[in-house]
């Protein structure tokens, strides 16, 4: 649409519906032709096409496949990290079982931390972690039958065993096979006694067995000459063996 503007001293806008006569334009008047906004001197208004991005439509199956691939890559990276560092850190992961990929670490694993989960089985194949030094199983609700001690007590390099805050009522005599053990944490269970074989643990320095139901302590505990810290508080003990006096390193 075009407009005429009278540029005389009494300027006025001349709309296209008006004739020159109706607008009282006099001879000699100066006129200016103006185009309305969005028009040009061509065939019509300039239109700018909107730039749109094509919509990617992926099926639910494609998303699942993509997620599965990501999970495989993540698991592979995690396993490689465990092997490189020797530390398998899985605390507070809502686990009900120790993942199979842990066993793939083999002799690379030095620490296995599965504290604060819901693990109900410590299988015999834990023995494949034959170089492990620290095993942390605290707060899993583990019962006696959940631990396959045959596998666990074969870990000859184990220095720290922590299984506090579970439901154990008994420790096996095979505990004596852990001859490298320096720290034993079994607090907050339901233990009624400690095995005589604890005396074989010549390198044991720390024994935490508080908050159980222990009624007697084996006299042979006095043979654990390396013990420097013992906590037997909050049990059902009526007396302590005299052999505790042999532990000259106690703090």
UniProtKB/TrEMBL annotation:
Keywords: Leucine-rich repeat, Repeat. InterPro entries: Leu-rich_rpt, Leu-rich_rpt_typical-subtyp, LRR_dom_sf, LRR_domain-containing, LRR_R13L4/SHOC2-like. Pfam families: LRR_14. The keyword Ribonucleoprotein does not apply. It comes from the Eukaryota. Residues 145-251 form the Disease resistance R13L4/SHOC-2-like LRR domain. Residues 42-62 are annotated as: Disordered. Gene3D superfamilies: Ribonuclease Inhibitor. Coiled coil: none annotated. The keyword Repressor does not apply. PANTHER family: PTHR48051, RAS SUPPRESSOR PROTEIN 1. This is Typical subtype, Leucine-rich repeat, Ubiquitin, Ubiquitin supergroup isoform 3.
């Amino acid at each position: 649409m075009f407009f005429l503007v009278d540029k005389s001293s009494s300027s006025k806008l001349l709309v296209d519906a008006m004739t020159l006569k109706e607008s009282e334009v006099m001879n000699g008047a100066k006129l200016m032709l103006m185009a309305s906004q969005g028009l040009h001197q061509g065939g019509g208004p300039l239109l700018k096409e909107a730039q749109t991005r094509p919509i990617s439509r992926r099926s639910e199956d494609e998303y699942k496949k993509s997620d599965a691939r990501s999970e495989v890559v993540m698991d592979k990276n995690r396993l490689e990290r465990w092997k490189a560092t020797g530390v398998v850190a899985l605390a507070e992961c809502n686990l009900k079982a120790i993942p199979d990929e842990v066993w793939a670490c083999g002799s690379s694993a030095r620490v296995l931390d599965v504290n604060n989960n819901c693990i109900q089985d410590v299988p015999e194949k834990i023995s494949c972690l034959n170089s492990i030094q620290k095993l942390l199983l605290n707060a899993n609700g583990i019962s006696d039958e959940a631990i396959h001690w045959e596998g666990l007590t074969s870990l000859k390099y184990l220095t720290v065993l922590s299984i506090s805050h579970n439901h154990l009522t008994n420790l096996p005599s095979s505990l004596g096979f852990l001859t490298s053990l320096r720290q034993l944490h079994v607090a907050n269970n339901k233990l009624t006694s400690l095995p005589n074989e604890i005396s074989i643990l010549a390198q044991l320095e720390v024994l935490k067995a508080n908050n159980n139901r222990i009624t007697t302590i084996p006299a042979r505990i006095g043979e654990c000459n390396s013990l420097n810290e013992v906590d037997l508080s909050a049990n059902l003990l009526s007396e302590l063996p005299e052999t505790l006096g042999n532990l000259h390193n106690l703090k």
